[in-house]
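## retry 2 of 3
previous attempt timed out at serialization; input unchanged, resubmitting
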Amino acid sequence: MRNPKGKNKAEAAEASGARSRKSASLEGYNSRVEPRTSQNGSLAFSAFVFVVAFCIVLAVALALVGRFNVWAVLVSFAVACLAVMSVHIALQWERVVVLRFGKFSRTKGPGLYFTIPFLEQTALKVDQRIMVTGFSAEETLTSDLVPINVDAVLFWMVWDAEKACLEVENYYNSVSLAAQTALRDAIGRASVSEVAVRRNQLDQELQEVIEERTSAWGITVLSVEIRDIVIPQGLQEAMSVEAQAERDKNARMVLAEVEKDISSMLVDAAKVYEENEVALRLRTMHLLYESVKGSGGTVVIPSAYSEGFSDAALNNMADSLKAARSQASPGA
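## retry succeeded, writing output
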């Protein structure tokens, strides 16, 4: 006999593992997980500056002294280090925040820029390309107390490097947490049906809320897209039954309206046939033609049936219709 408590613990551990795998797959959309561009250009430039400065100073020392010595090598090494600390390069998509004596001095980049060694420092290199952040809200209660899981993707970029450096400690993590909080708040104000149906409105609402929170950090939100909405299985079945009942209701209403229109048209047609015997005869012949048109066969009409096409039979039919109408009129 299996232990129910052990089974519950196993199910809980499996659910927790599934949520962890899902969160890990969602974090794979984040921009900083796998950089698509190389940062080796700035490192190669620094190495180049070091080698050039070292060689130039060493050549000057050799020209002045006339021979190599330890002091010439040490001075060349020190000057090369100062050159590396003074001359920098920023990539096309980067903006660099420079501090002097711990205070904001300027933003530089892209391209070549200079700093004063020991007095100025590079506080932050901001990537101004479009960033992608995946975030989710797991088991969040809606306004009708239904726990749902929602996954979304946020597209944003830094437009002010100074604010991103000075106003917030870690702007990347702050954007992710602000987006997750806004998603939970939006879900809590809507019912489960509204979340499932109003995706575009939810995207727009999230973009406005996150934009309001991150604009003070020099960050603008380009768009928010809901990737997936997971509703509990039991509620999915109930919503499916409700949707099927609604479709059946609409179908029955349409059928009733069509039958009403058809009955009105038949009444009008009966009046026409009553007033015009030729029209009644043509209708009879048309029905016979329609019955054999698709098969392409030949109709053999019995003598008793063929009498129905005679003038006398049609006159009798018309007289009977008039008599029935005259009998119905006094009763009405």
